[in-house]
Amino acid sequence: MHWRGIAGVADCRVHKAVASQVDWRAVREDFPILRQRVRGHDLIYFDSAASSQKPRAVIEALRNFYERDNANVHRGLHTLSGRATEAYEHARQRVAEYIGAASADEIIFTRGTTESINLVAQAWGEKFLGEGDVILLTAMEHHSNLVPWQLLAERKGARLQFLPVRDDGTLDIEKLHSLLTPEVKLFAFTHISNSLGTINPVADLCAKARAVGALTLVDAAQSAGHMPLDVQELGCDFLAFSGHKMCAPTGIGVLYGRAELLDSTPPWQGGGEMIVSVTLEKSTFKKPPHRFEAGTPNIAGAVGLAAAIDYIDAIGRPAIFEHDSELARYAADRVSELPGTRVFGPKEERGALVGFVMDAAHPHDLTTFADQYGLALRGGHHCNQPLMRRFNVPGTTRASFYFYNTTEEIDRMVEILHAAVQFFK
Question: How far is Cα 221 from Cα 143, in angstroms, rounded to an integer?
Answer without folding.
Answer: 13
